[in-house]
Amino acid sequence: MTGPVQEPVFWTDDSSVCEPLPHGADIAPHFHDFGQLRYAASGALVTVTQVGTWVAPANRITWMPPFQVHSGRSYGATDVRLLHIPAALAERLPAEPSVFAASALLREAYLALVTDQDPADGPRARLLLQVVVTELARAPQEALRLPEPADTRLKAVTDLLHADPASPATLAELGHRTGSSERTLSRLFSGELSMSFHQWRTLLRVQRALIELCEGTSVTDTAIRLGWANPSSFIEAFTDLVGQTPGRYRSMAHAARDVAGNR
């Protein structure tokens, strides 16, 4: 999820992102003067900002406020449906990037807006947009924001973990590889990211698990591929952070993807 630093670009149009994205496609850092909602009808979209990383599989909608610099990466063949939110309506949504769970009503109104041929400023489109914003304002927010560090010593470690979330390396071993002491890194995790090394790596693994499960990987295989000692410990960690078991999440994600894929 990490890469060379690029200067953000002001985009007035995201039509190039609307095309289906292949696995691993990168969206360069950019920003808009309008708010934007991003829904992956298939695959999963990872959104990265200076302060954190969000994962949005097919049953989640990402909110990006105006002027918020962000980049992204697709996992799986990703069909992204974008929706512009005028500044006046954007004020009703959070000032920070967010990911929302999509209710059936929210998903249907959203998909109708991005697939209908009616004029964008027509009465039906305006009504559907009001429904989307109203539903988002009361929808539960996904709690899985992964904070990203600014300190270069800490970033060297988190870059290694992004590249290999299943790595069993201890903080001392990662520190040895990056030239920092375990004590220094532990202090940085706590002071800058407000969580321990173990908590951060668990959150990273659960974010990746969302992608694995939405691509159809079994719960057991997901646990093994992402470094858990056994499926039980994975299920416990996932349920604590997501609020539902990985098996139920996998089923709901596939149902949501099927609905979106038929639009």
Description of the molecule:
Helices cover 46% and strands 21% of the residues. The protein has 263 residues and is an alpha+beta fold. Helix 5 (152-163) crosses helix 6. InterPro entries: AraC-bd, Cro/C1-type_HTH, Homeodomain-like_sf, HTH_AraC, RmlC_Cupin_sf. Keywords: DNA-binding, Transcription, Transcription regulation. Residues 155-252 form the HTH araC/xylS-type domain.
* Total beta-strand segments: 8
Which descriptor suits the 3D outline?
A: globular
The SSE string, one letter per element, is EHEEEEEHEHHEHHHHHHH
Rg is 19 Å
Instruction: Tell me the number of structural domains.
Output: 2
CATH topology of the largest domain: Jelly Rolls
Structural class comes to alpha+beta
Mean pLDDT: 85
Protein name: AraC family transcriptional regulator
GO molecular function: DNA-binding transcription factor activity; sequence-specific DNA binding
Keywords: DNA-binding, Transcription, Transcription regulation
Organism: Spongiactinospora rosea
What's the quick description here?
With 263 residues, the protein is an alpha+beta fold.
